[in-house]
Amino acid sequence: MKNFLKYIVAFVLGLFARAVVRRYRPRIVMVTGSVGKTSTKDAVAAVLAARFFVRKSEKSFNSEFGVPFTILGVGNPWGNPFAWFSIIKSAFALLALPNHYPNMLVLETGADRPGDLARILRIATPDAVVVTRLPEIPVHVEAYPSPDAVREEEFSPAYALRAGAPLIIPADDAHALDMAIRTPARIISYGTTEDASVHIGSAGFYEVEGKVAGMTADVDSAGERGSLIVRGSVGKTQLLPAAAALAVATAFDIAFPEALRALEAYEPPPGRGRLLAGKNGSIVIDDSYNASPAAVEEALATLKAFPRALRRIAVLGDMLELGRYSVMEHERIGTLARDSADVVAAVGIRARAFASASGNAEVLLFDSAQAAAQSLAALAREGDVILVKGSQSVRTERVVEALLADSADTTRLVRQEKKWRQRA
Question: Binning pLDDT at 50, 70 and 90, where does residue 314 land?
Fold first, then answer.
């Protein structure tokens, strides 16, 4: 019964959202892929806002519910029936009354199971598509027959593009390059390869007064060069959303200098490699939003390269929804973790595989994020760099919260809404 009601609500929301799109005819940029969608969506919206009246998906509103919420300009009502009534009222107002509606929508799209993106594409058709990384073992693979099937679904918005429409893809991703050939779209690439349309090079840590404050790189687009700085987060992957946004600027005829200026105000969203002050003079890399093998691998590379760390600590939670690939990927990541850190704190049943992986790092085992939070807060000391990452359900933001030097920084963490904090 619950699933039937969910289907009915999603269907009605979709009808309203499709009707709004048809009435106002905004241009639609869809952001899809396995890794980095929300950061990319935010960076793309920051650049497009230089020329257009833009609305973007809030947080990670990327489902058959989240996309209509964005189109209708409403928040998540959770289980509040009065809030649901307000959504219906807002939808009717959009359709019946004149409104100053955005002329550009930046919609994040995601797939948890087969058919999710097909349902979203029935609501809205993209005018441009931005693809993020499509890794070998993507998240949600347990719901699909193979990794190829996940990648095919995540790439499907590109197949909805009309001939000549812009398709922005990562030049470093072989899967995206191969799949793009099947489309009649105008391909614009971004990444670290020399032949990328928007090429980023000489990437490194951005420092202010001797302290790491973000990432920096040189960037080249159609012969124009500049410097790119992403503040507040670390990892080479934090530069890719900005590069994708510069590629979108090319597609919509926004001048390169103008796009770079627009990105000066961009910061990655909470839980994506964010730098926070930790207890006892430590530094916390808050990457607690979610975890897939590809994302954990990149986070560990960042931890290993972090300058002037006296001790590197990796707090890693279970990576969920990997199905038959779970044991193999946890063992592989365990070896990487024990090579990248001095101490590895494994949180969850699956993460226990880190203890048997090869490597010299000390391994601490915790059954839950709450248990890890209690112990790790006392472990932190000056000079430590502490990476925290885990799948959403593991709730590793609780570890980050316990490690904060200033409790006021809790507002900068993921999943701080009342409904989330009430969950066990």
Answer: very high
Q: For residue 98, what are the CA distances in angstroms to 55, 93, 105?
A: 18, 8, 18
- Residue 52, CB half-sphere, CA atoms under 13 Å: how many? 24
Domain assignment of residue 233, given as a range: 2-263
Is 85 found in the same domain as 28? Answer: yes
pLDDT single digits (tens) 24-78: 999 999 999 999 999 999 999 999 999 999 999 988 888 999 999 999 999 888 7
One domain, residues 225 and 311: no
For residues 246 and 298, membership in a common domain is answered with no
Q: Is residue 268 part of a domain?
A: no
Answering whether pTM is above 0.90, one says yes
Question: Where are the alpha helices (H) located in 76-230, listed in sequence order?
Answer: 81-96, 116-123, 147-159, 174-180
Residue 402 lies in a domain: yes
Strands 54-56 vs 104-108: parallel, antiparallel or unpaired: parallel
Residue closest to 414 by CA, chosen among 375, 388, 376? 388
Here the tokens at position 202 are 């000489």
Tokens for 290, please give them. Answer: 């979610």
Question: Using one digit for the tens of pLDDT, what is the confidence trace for 214-243?
Answer: 999 999 999 999 999 999 999 999 999 999
In this structure, the answer to whether residues 253 and 344 fall within a common structural domain is no
Does 72 map to a domain? Answer: yes
